[in-house]
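Suppose a colleague, Dr. K., hands you the sequence of a protein chain of 141 amino acids and asks what its three-dimensional shape might be. Before reaching for any lab equipment, you can write down a predicted structure in token form. Begin with the sequence itself:
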Amino acid sequence: MSEPVAYPYETRLNILFPHLAVVDIQPLIDACQFQWYNQTLCKVNDSVVRLGVMQGEYHWHQHDADDEFFYVVEGQFIIDLEGRSVTLGPRQGFVVPRGVLHRTRAPVRSVILMVETASIVPTGDAARRGGGHPSSRRRAD
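The predicted structure, expressed as tokens, is then:
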């Protein structure tokens, strides 16, 4: 069995804001010193809303059982899919359906909101199987 892959992302899965609380993201954005930061803000039914403050690129991954919604608050956010890329600007969103291999990039410091199931593995299910874009995976013969 292979070792889990370590990723250079700051991912915080704790829920910061309980029900009936005002969700204020500006102090989190202002305090962020990480290149790729995800913070769970709140839970809504079986889903969570996460804040992302990022610049750079995430690895290729997929979520076998979960859709992901990305919404850009500020900056530019690119979602690479096999065969095409989708570029989002402020006040634009996009859903990546379950099972679709994708990679996200932010060429400039960007702020996004994500909505996904609370049980999702942020680094993707593919990461557990070796991760990466299929063209970069090595077979274990």
